[in-house]
Amino acid sequence: MNPNDILPLDVLAIGEPMIEFNQTTPGDPRFLQGFGGDTSNMAIAAARSGARTGYWTRLGDDAFGAMLRLLWAAEGVDASAVVTDPAAHTAVYFVTHGPDGHAFSYLRAGSAAARMRPADVPLPLLRSARIVQASGISLAISASACDAVLHAFDAARAAGATVAFDSNLRLKLWPLARARATIGAAAGMADVFFPSLDDVQVLSGLDDPDAILDWSHRLGAKAVLLKLGADGVIASDGTRRERIAGHRVEAVDATGAGDCFCGACLARLAAGDSLWDAARYANAAAALSTTGYGAVAPLPRPEAVRALLAAGAGRPGTGN
User: How is domain 7-14+39-55+126-310 classified at the CATH fold level?
Assistant: First the structure.
């Protein structure tokens, strides 16, 4: 990769993209094919919110990998550094819906993305980015992927980029003790940390949101956006804290809402918004993302987000 050929990015995401099969009606044997993977969702959300966005991962040499490349091309996400791995498959997951919400089933063991290594990190592309983002899932899919992400974060910090990290705890992927240590280390490297309340209650052993924010800052995170689901978000820069209520929408599927929040927020931060304005925009975007099925299809455009914000201040409802 010739550094002179690289266009600067606002946001570069690192992680595991997936093919999604979503059950739109509980009990229905038919599934709607879509796309997922938390960091890929985030990258597309950021692109739809106006950011110049890139993605780095490994894909299988299969039809699903080709579909993801077409998706990123259609969404304006730079996938020029994505590696095709002929020895592994592209990951897949299924979403089912019932009285307790949505549930996930995965076919991801040994995926191409899990074979990422520190030596594979595209340093010229990474050094072109203003923000480098990954998640707890990016760390959890394998030891080598974890090392690759932490190496990328080190390189991003050395290049003066902003590091963004989403907790996304998945205990099916690794033991809690390792998750606590590794997610804590990554959060400590983050300029912008996106924990969800459910995740961080398990990771920190705390319940009170203010105590959780204090814990996050003690790890080393500079800005923290605590995602509260239907109740909105609390944004903190270590000195000021602001709680932003959720928006009332006709929610049908919350898959990927937290990823949407991250992508929309980082796009607005890259555009020069304050932490508080970016959080308000992202909170509205995440609410809108729950009004359709799948992780990608309902990700909103700026005009829809601005219309929801203009309709009034956040009210209790579905947030991020």
Answer: UDP-N-acetylmuramoyl-L-alanine:D-glutamate ligase (3.40.1190)
